[in-house]
Amino acid sequence: MDLLMAAHGKLDLPPGYGIELRGDMTQMEESFNRLLRGLYLAVIFMFLLLVAQFRSLVEPFNMVFSLSLTLTGILGGLYLAGQTFSTVSILAVVILTGMMMTVAVLMIDLVLRLRAQGVPRDEAILTAGPIRLRPIIMTSIITIVALIPVAFFPRTGIDAYAPLAVVVIGGLTIGTVLALFVVPVIHTYTDDLAALLQRTIARLRRREGKKEAAA
């Protein structure tokens, strides 16, 4: 499309004449751009809601970062199914974004509640993992089983939604497995970084206090 527009721009047309592309290709490109904007807005609004819920910027960032874990499953599923990235696939990514965010919220929310009760961080993670494992796995398995006929054995009339089912199955399979391990690990790293920053700030304040007392 860009090459075609560039070639049209080099044409020496008479005054008052121009070229405008219309048809299925332009409509598909417009739909593609609208869905991408919708995906960006969905991620932004989810991040803002999580910030309001957890009253923190760090934990919502960890949850939003977990969305990138689904890319391997999305691209791998489309490749194995012999399908291409389309507007229906982007719609599936929007759906998958909400599902994967739920997995991260379930895990981190329980970890934070346990830590608020005085449980050490590592023990809280080891306790929250087995508790949240069953609901997360059951939800993912039910969704995958329900979408398998649509992805691989579509009937007439719903075959257009096969890419949607493939994206959700691939992204949910890989993303869920990775999220169960990666999200707690990211939580430990960000928690260590936050603790380091707090110690550094406290050390700097003590130095400033000593200098003011000496002066």
In short:
With about 220 residues, this protein is mainly alpha-helical.
Describe the protein in words:
- The protein is mostly helical and 215 residues long.
- It is 80% helix and 0% strand.
- The chain is built from 7 helices and no strands.
- α3 (58-65) packs antiparallel against α5 and α5 (87-116) runs antiparallel to α6 (121-152).
- The radius of gyration is 24 Å and the shape is flat.
- The model has no long low-confidence stretch (mean pLDDT 79).
Order of helices and strands: HHHHHHH
Q: Strand percentage, roughly?
A: under 5%
* Number of separate strands: 0
Helix/strand/pairing category: mainly alpha
Give a short account of the largest sheet: none
Q: What overall geometry do the principal axes of the alpha carbons give?
A: flat
State the low-pLDDT regions, or none. Answer: none
Give the number of helices. Answer: 7
Q: Gyration radius, to the nearest Å?
A: 24 Å
Give the rounded overall mean pLDDT.
79
Amino- and carboxy-terminal Cα gap: 70 Å
Name the helicity range: over 70%
For this entry, give a set of tags.
7 helices, mainly alpha, 215 residues
Give the arrangement of secondary structure elements.
Elements: H1 2-9, H2 24-54, H3 58-65, H4 71-81, H5 87-116, H6 121-152, H7 162-214
Helix pairs in contact: 2-3, 2-5, 3-5, 3-7, 4-7, 5-6, 5-7, 6-7
